[in-house]
Specification:
single chain; mainly alpha; SMc04008-like fold; about 75% helix; globular; DUF1244 domain containing protein; SMc04008-like_domain; SMc04008-like_sf
Amino acid sequence: MSDITTEIEAAAFRRLLEHLDRRKDVQNIDLMILAGFCRNCLADWYREAAEARGVEIGREQARERIYGEPFAEWKARHQPEATPEQLAAFEAARKQAH
């Protein structure tokens, strides 16, 4: 992969993080229902990519990179409990994916 490709992908990743930061109203469960991934998945992918390159990053450290703050703080401020409708839609989407 060329350096320019890596730079472009990094810029797109940073823009995705900025977009998710602006859209705190979009809940992780909604992302999972519609797209099959959420901010936590992105943090896991980030951590796995680091580890594949010999860089140890803990789960909470990776989540802080994605959320822009400690996950517990973000969750307390921006993530209400899932509604029964969201939980039902999540379960239906999960079944559909398998």
